[in-house]
Structure formats: C-alpha cells, structure tokens
Automatic annotation (TrEMBL):
Family indicated by similarity: Belongs to the inositol monophosphatase superfamily.
Alphabetic keyword roster: Hydrolase, Magnesium, Metal-binding
EC category name: hydrolase
EC numbers, comma separated: 3.1.3.7
A single BP term in Gene Ontology: phosphatidylinositol phosphate biosynthetic process
InterPro entries linked to this entry: DPNP, Inositol_monoP_metal-BS, Inositol_monoP_superfamily, Inositol_monophosphatase-like, Inositol_monophosphatase_CS
Binding annotation for Mg(2+): E68, D121, I123, D124, D268
Lineage of source species: Bacteria, Pseudomonadati, Planctomycetota, Planctomycetia, Planctomycetales
Superkingdom to which the source organism belongs: Bacteria
Cofactor(s) it depends on: Mg(2+)
NCBIfam families, A to Z: bisphos_HAL2 (TIGR01330)
Protein name: 3'(2'),5'-bisphosphate nucleotidase
Length: 324
C-alpha cells in the first residue's frame, strides 16, 4: 500500500499546525502554564493538537490518535482565559468555532493503540519552543506495530542549500520509499534525505538534548571519550535531532536513560525514527533492540534510544555497554 492519502493528509496537518506554532512563538510571553507533572505546555501545544486531530479525523474517522495533550488541562475556571486563547488561534481557519468543539478536537488525541493508529506530539521540545529555539511537530502512523508514515515539522530548522533560512523544514518518510525534505511553506518541491557516510566512530559528530534531565550528558561524554571523539556534541531540543542525523549534519543522537528512570513516550520518537531509517540510518534502544511501538503510550520494553547513520551503530552500542 502506498499510503498516499495518509501522507498528503499528514503533510497538510503538520503544515497547518506548524504555522500556528510559529505565530505563537513570535508573541510567546504569558502563553504557557504548568501541567500536573510540572512540565510546561503552551496555547500552541493545544492548538497544534486540535488542528492535527481535526484534519486526521476528517480524513480517517476510524483511526485512533494517541496525542500528548488532553483538554482536561484546560477545563478549570482559572484556565478559561487560556482556553479562550487556544480557541482564538483556531478561529481564523474555523470562524465561530466554540470551546467545546476545540476541546473535542484535542481529545480526539486520547485514543488507544491497536492495529492501526496515529501518534502525535503537537509540540515536541516545548522547553526549546519557549526559549525561541528548536522544536518539532511530530506525527506518525503505526500499522501492525510498524511505523509506516512519519513526519517532522521543524519550523526553526533551516532548509539547507540556498532555501530560505527562515522557512523551516518538513521531513517525511514512507516505509520502503525513502525520506524526503520539503520547505515548511506551501512549496511541494522535495529533496531526498540521506545520512552521513562517517564510518569511523572517532570522527562522529554527536547531537544531544539541551536539557540534561532528559538524557545523561555525563555518560555521553564518557562514551565519546571511549570512542576517541574530540568534537563537542551539538545540543538542540526536540526530535529536530532525528532530522539533523537523517540529513547527515550529525552522525548520532544519544538519548541515554537518566537516574530518574523516565519511560520514553511513543510520540517523542515515532515521527523521527522512520525518517532516520528511510534516510539509511539506524535506531535502537541502548541494548540494541528495536523500539517497540506496541505497548500503548510508552516505550516500556526499551531503555534509552540510540540513533545513528548506521555505519557507527555497533561501535556506539559497544561503548554504551562499556559505560553501563
Ligand atoms: N524527564 C524527561 N525525560 C526525558 N524526556 C522528557 C522528560 N520530560 C519531558 N520529556 C520530553 O523530552 C522531549 C524533549 O527532549 P529534548 O528536547 O531534550 O530532546 C520532549 O518530548 C519532552 O516532552 P515535550 O513534548 O513535552 O517537550
Ligand atoms: Mg510536553
Ligand atoms: Mg515530546
Ligand atoms: Mg510535546
């Protein structure tokens, strides 16, 4: 199956959501609040989830969506002004839309898994978004446990090679059909995406989280030292790191388990994994096992994530094991 309609629908959804995120990022002050787990969320996270779920549900009414956000976080009286701002972001494209309808769109993202489902991170890297740095809109379709379509909208990542620096870029992949890069604006011109050809682990360029609480930075520098790597890792937020490895600007992305024992969420990886794999790279957990997207909202069968150009993957896993 070619998944043409799925890809076209997902491209439209990620583009529309990214446009809203861009608009909010320009005037970010006062646009965020804290969730029960103390992580930040902004009006753009909710609006992005609403838009993507609306578009997906229109096109594929039977497909469940597992999204990060829930409208429950918007329903207290004190949060009503915040909800009204989310509604305001959706009004230009949906004149007269009511708060109840918007909450319904957001909660279309509360689906369960199954044989065929979508997973969505409406803003991945909210902390980066708030700092005015990298973030991504991440969307993937999973069929029989395999990612078959994946997209990463990266509004603050320049589309290389003479494309306008501030258009942002959009990665997509369909299983067996390669990975592609577009500008995030309306243009449908595409470029193939390929990982680097770096075969010597000592020459590898790493990228990693900005937030040390999300991945063990100390351990990644030990791993780099073991491999004889002298360059310092590039730190950037969000699944934009998958995009950067997919297009060969870095050779590896290490997400090493932290002491807190955090379980990775499927929406924090699904959009990036197939882009890297279809670009010729490899993704596994720290034990070398493939990521399993068949256990609900979390990657509960995996620990950490190692992303590479494929050529240096075994060397990375060996060094990871030696620092365990
Ligand atoms: N304690 C945590 N450990 C690992 N990842 C986390 C943690 N808390 C939130 N995240 C998620 O990690 C991702 C960002 O990590 P980074 O940018 O450092 O790679 C985001 O998906 C973020 O969710 P969110 O989508 O809410 O931003
Ligand atoms: Mg979050
Ligand atoms: Mg995320
Ligand atoms: Mg998020």
């Amino acid at each position: 199956m070619g998944f043409e309609k799925e890809l076209a629908t997902a491209l439209e959804a990620v583009r529309e959501a990214s446009e809203i995120c861009r608009k909010v990022q320009k005037e970010i002050a006062g646009s965020s609040l804290e969730k029960d787990d103390r992580s930040p969320v902004t009006i753009a996270d909710f609006a992005s989830q609403a838009v993507v779920c609306r578009i997906l549900t229109d096109a594929f009414p039977n497909d469940p969506i597992i999204g990060e956000e829930t409208a429950a976080d918007l329903l207290s009286d004190e949060r009503r002004p915040f909800l009204d701002r989310v509604v305001g972001l959706l009004t230009p494209a949906n004149p007269g839309v009511h708060a109840e309808t918007v909450c319904g769109w957001i909660d279309a993202g509360r689906g369960d898994g199954g044989d065929r489902f979508w997973t969505l991170d409406p803003i991945d890297g909210t902390k980066g978004f708030l700092r005015g740095e990298q973030y991504a809109v991440s969307l993937a379709l999973i069929v029989d446990g395999q990612i078959v379509v994946s997209l990463l909208g990266c509004p603050n990542l320049s589309a290389e090679d003479g494309w306008d620096r501030d258009t942002g870029c959009l990665f997509s992949a369909v299983r067996g059909k390669g990975a592609t890069l577009r500008r995030l604006d309306g243009s449908n011109e595409t470029k193939p995406v390929r990982v680097s050809g770096t075969g010597k682990a000592s020459a590898a360029r790493f990228c990693e989280s900005v937030e040390s609480g999300h991945s063990a930075h100390g351990r990644s520098s030990q791993i780099a030292a073991l491999l004889g790597i002298e360059s310092t890792p590039v730190r950037l937020d969000s699944q934009a790191k998958y995009g950067v490895v997919a297009r060969g600007e870095a050779d590896a992305y290490l997400r090493l388990p932290t002491k807190a024992g955090y379980r990775e969420k499927i929406w924090d990886h699904a959009g990036g994994v197939l882009v890297v794999e279809e670009a010729g790279g490899k993704v596994s957990d720290v034990d070398g096992k493939p990521l399993e997207f068949t256990h609900g909202r979390e990657l509960s069968a995996n620990r950490g994530v190692i992303v590479s150009n494929g050529l240096i993957h075994d060397a990375l896993l060996e060094a990871v094991a030696r620092t365990a």
